[in-house]
Amino acid sequence: MAKETIKATLWGALVTSALAILIIVGSRNLAHFDAALVGYTFAVLFATFGITYRYAMWLQRPPTALYWKRGWQVFFRPRHLSRNLAQWFGRVTGEFALNRFIFRRSKSRWAAHWLIMWGCVMAMAITFPLVFGWIHFETLPEDIHWYRTYIFGFSTFAFPIHSIFGFMIFHGLVWASILVIAGVMLAMRRRMRDHGAAALQQFGEDFLPLILLFAISVTGLMLTASYSWMKGYGYDFLAILHAITVIFTLLWLPFGKFFHIFQRPAQLGVGFYKDVGERSAQAQCRRCKEAFASRMHVEDLIKVEQQLGFKYEIDDATEHYQWICPRCRRSMLALAQGREWNEEVKR
Amino acid sequence: MATIPDLEQDIIERFGPHLAYSSGVRLETGIEPDRLVQTHCCFCGQQCGIQLKVKDNQVIGFEPREDFPFNRGMLCPKGVKRYLQGSHPDRLLSAYERDKKSEGGFRSVTYQKAVERVAAEIKRIQSEFGNDAFGVLSGASLTTEKTYLMGKFARLCLKTANIDYNGRLCMVSAAAGNKKAFGIDRAANPWSDILKSEVVLIAGANVAECAPITTNYVWQARENGARIIVIDPRITPIARTCDLFLPVKPGRDVALFNGILHLMIEHNLLDHQFIEQETVGFDSVAEQVREWNPKRTAEVTGISEKAIRQAAEWWGEARTSFLLHARGIEHHSHGVQNVLGAINLVLASGRIGREGCGYATITGQGNGQGGREHGQKCDQLPGGRDISNPEHRAYVAGVWGVDAAELPGAGVDAYEIFRKIDRGEIRGLLSICFNPKVSLPDSKFVTRALEKLEFYVAIDFFLSETAHHADIVLPGSLHEEDEGVVTQIEGRVIKINKAVDPPGDARQDWRIIQDVAKALGRERGFTFSEPREIFKELRVASRGGIADYSGITYEKIERQQGVFWPCVSDDDPGTERLFEKGSWNPIAKGAGRFYFADGKARFNVAQYAPPAEDVDQEYPIILTTGRVVSHFLSGTQTRRIGPLIDQYPEPKVEMHPRLAEKLGVEDGDWVTVESRRGRVTLRAHVVATIRPDTVFIPYHWAGNQSANLLTISAQDPISKIPEYKVCAVRVSKTD
Amino acid sequence: MAVPRHNQFFIDPNRCIGCQACVQACSECDTHKGHPMIHLEYVDRAHSVQTVPVVCMHCEAPTCAEVCPADAIKRTEDGVVQTARKPRCIACNNCVLACPFGVPEMETELKLMMKCDMCYDRTSVGKKPMCATVCPSQALFFGTMEEIERLRPRSTPINQFKFGRQIIATKVHIMIPKTGRAAYIDVTAAMDERSMGKDITLMILDEMLDVRG
């Protein structure tokens, strides 16, 4: 096994074990663990291993490794830490909570993504702690119309079961499903109409995730419908169906489109790297003498390219092709081709 | 009456130019258009095939039209963005009446009321000052049906001699030269002949910017082994990589042609057989070019003797060739002489009327060819007939069902119409498809004349700068809102198809003209119900003329992807190449292949004269004007299309670094260019691609950015084309 | 859907007239509507009207994809290097700086790199890319190898480029003279090359300038 794989496997095992321990501890030695949900738990553990493994592999690629290192370095620069923290909150809100950059790409795309994202976040925030036994409810001994919430086995707030609050809490997954279904509909509409999307989309990458989300949401809603209005008609079958959709999605998490959820935060590191780059020394193009990027970025890229095996070194004062700006690169292509024709005229 | 004192800014705020960009449904990528309409571009004479995407009576985009043989999908940036002219915020949606108190200087009025006012004013002016006191200015971007109707309207309905058109600014020198030499005015060859020539000589044509699709023909010829010779005072993109570049001093083209002919004679690079058997007049031309030895030619043209000798050698020795010229040699007070000089080179070589042997002017306007054939020219009747020729008058009068005596005689050219306005001889004016305030030289004079008009009615789809002066504006139609034929650069008659209906109160131009005729109570001959009916009459009117369309039908155009005129009968596919051996024409009647009674082509002595206004101590620099690729003519359309303005936002003064150094000017500095007629202040564009004694300004802009504030109204005595390409200026850095 | 194998992209910058029809048409494509992806620039306008159109060359081993920290750039099986996958691209600019041809563009506001994808919506259904369809000089040509050989008897296509010591092979071809013997176009060797074109050489230039006093 290659070094990278060993490293990634170890990281995967470590994080998965940590989660397992947390489940045991959080459910008070499985006292509050619902045995019926054991399938979900194992799927989550598998997904955790898979995601950590892939993440670790990804971080070991030269460009990612460099960005990872640099991102943290520039973030923790003592002089800028307070400003960085403020910016971190700003960016998490703007880019992650509000998806502002997607809004700028396309409004319908943004609406779809925002609905799906918040639907999923809500659903996971509810189900994962429940499945792991990290949260459970107990009726108050003095009033059976009240519930008390226990988190990690610690007693917290209580609320009346038949209150609006209670209704909202117990139907949290219904609300999440509605958001997800609305988002999936919008996304599907775009995928089916848009000519650009039609050219580029692939079933596995683009349709499957939407279908899975839709299936989870709909089977979940059917469960609610079954026990609320149909006296539990077909409940067992629906529960199995729902479990299948969820477990399949969890198992697929490390491989497909959903992995972007874990990659995306890198955007924050890039932001800080760019901020520092703008404030620091600029690289001047060694052909036109214009500034075109931060010196740090160019030097880092040279390292990355060398690690990747590219040989863009130039045997003169230019040293490396990376010191030439993109505009000059384009011009040089024309000049190089023109030179061939000029030589033909001479012949 | 037609003055615009302080309203200019108000007018611009209300009527534009505002910039249109793709937005809404035009940016949507999930829209299926209702239909794709196969038609042509609305701009230049190449008339590239294009498909317009239509959704809900709106043009929302385009698709290339690869089946049309001329351009096979190719388009220039104007063609690509042409769709943005529709659904434009500046579009005139109702008739307007001048009203100083209203916002924007005009008040919206009902169409009927506006037409009635037009009729009343025409009647008043004509009864008071005579029929010729009302003038008509028309345009060469109209379909041929409309240009035919405009000529008929002026002669038959208004009975005025004074109609002319903006082709006067464009194709007339070539037309006059062609008629003198060949007896017919049409590109002699289809562009496919360019591909088969050994030498392509391009004189005064910025092909890359003004006829971009022609570039591929030239490069393809080079790829097939041709040598490319370019004559231009600027290194245009087509000149950059040509084989021989002759940077002629503006206004000296004929000297160069004479010099080349001199060398051809000297080295006996002539087609003697052709000259003897099929031409007349060679001897006097040979006599005249004797003085144009290389030394003198070099002195006058500013081109090295070596280059002139090289040109003569290549041109003289070629077995096949194509000579193309355009406004660069035609926009001169001796534009016809320049054209004749170029044609003499073709005739001396004998390379005409066969495959790979061609000659053509690169027509500028959309219907530059068709628009100059069917009677909106001041001295012309349909079919390219002569209004002074009794037989021609009788024929057309017969078609129109009137007595020939009722038809007025020849009128005056477009610029002379303004002089007549200035002198009070013309009191009222109707204009369509013409923006003379921007496009005519010495625009201060044009403005003064417009202000003197008692009544001016403009038909347009946007309020052009000239229409700012109008008393009544009638909302006309865009290219995509009507159907009809146009004749493109090669002489191919093609069909414009309607994509959408005119919005609001706007209507098709021919309907407006007919409505005016009706309001005048003279609707006889103006009761067509569709363009097809007009075309049917036009075919009859052109029958037997030189520009004979009688065998052309909409269906034949559709079937053949265009029909080259002359096309004289139903089973005649048309005439792609003129002057082929054994060809028949109605003038020579079999005597020969050229359009003269003896069937022979004419050599004409091409006399050199310096430009009307040469440089001197006071105004030491030559100004030449022209176009840029992203704009068209007076810019009424292209200055309203955002991406085209972004590509070239404002006019700049091109000058050579040596001149700039002398003037203490750096690239981007503001400079003032002054002539005897006016001044403009623009940014300098310092580039080594122009002669150091010349500056260049593109002319598409209005107001104080207008190059035509500087240009001179000197005209060619024969063609009456103005001398846009040379006048004297001084340039100084603006503080 | 994939780009049919026989259709290829050929560029002859020497033909380019700088008209920008390609740029204007590029923004009409459905995969990047409103965003022209082709670059068209003057090489050195002060001295020459030479211009250069640059589309993605679709490298066989794309540097942009290799240096992408987010795995956002994919080369499809038909050899087309696609624009960054929207969920992944983190707008780091590595690809923009590393592409040897200077192709990708960063849309900072959108947190997204965009680049020429050979009009995938068109080429994958057998149509030509917008730029090559409209190009009036056919500096941009899309067609088969047989067509280009027939149409350009003086030229030959080449798809190997040298930058420093690195040779890059691409899907897109550049036209060079048939008489040339080069195995590749040496781009970095053109570092100090001057923009080309005819010069205004006038024998009486100096006198003319003197007249002006």
Question: Outline of this structure?
Answer:
The complex is a heterotrimer of chains A (347), B (735) and C (213). By secondary structure, chain A is mainly alpha-helical.
Structure description:
The complex is a heterotrimer of chains A (347), B (735) and C (213). With 347 residues, chain A is mainly alpha-helical. Among the domains of chain A are: 99-201; 281-346, no CATH class. In chain A, 69% of the residues lie in helices and 7% in strands. Chain A has 15 helices and five strands. In chain A, a hairpin with a 6-residue loop joins strand 4 and strand 5. Chain A is elongated and about 95 Å long. The mean pLDDT of chain A is 92. Chain B is of the alpha/beta class and 735 residues long. Chain B contains 24 helices and 28 strands. Chain B has a seven-stranded mixed beta sheet with strand order 5-4-18-17-16-6-7, with helices on both faces. Chain C has 213 residues and is of the alpha/beta class. Chain C has one domain (8-211): Alpha-Beta Plaits (2-Layer Sandwich). In chain C, a hairpin with a 2-residue loop joins strand 7 (155-163) and strand 8 (166-177). Residues 202-213 of chain C have low confidence and may be disordered. Classes of the chains: A mainly alpha (347), B alpha/beta (735), C alpha/beta (213). At the A-C interface, helix 3, helix 5, helix 9, helix 13 and helix 14 of A face strand 3, helix 3, helix 4, strand 8 and strand 9 of C.
Report the portion of residues of chain C in β strands. Answer: 15-25%
What letter string, H or E per element, gives the SSE order of chain C?
Answer: EHEEHHEEHHEHEEEH
Please give the oligomerization state of what you see. heterotrimer
Strand arrangement, largest sheet of chain C? 6-1-8-7-9
Classification by helices and strands of chain C: alpha/beta
Briefly note the CATH topology name of the largest domain in chain B: Rossmann fold
- Mean pLDDT across residues of chain C: 90
CATH architecture of chain C: 2-Layer Sandwich
Mean pLDDT of chain B: 96
The DSSP helix count of chain B reads 24
Features:
heterotrimer, A: 347 residues, mainly alpha, three-stranded antiparallel sheet, two-stranded antiparallel sheet, 15 helices, 5 strands, elongated, B: 735 residues, alpha/beta, N-terminal domain of TfIIb, Rossmann fold, Dimethylsulfoxide Reductase, domain 2, 4 domains, seven-stranded mixed sheet, six-stranded mixed sheet, 24 helices, 17% strand
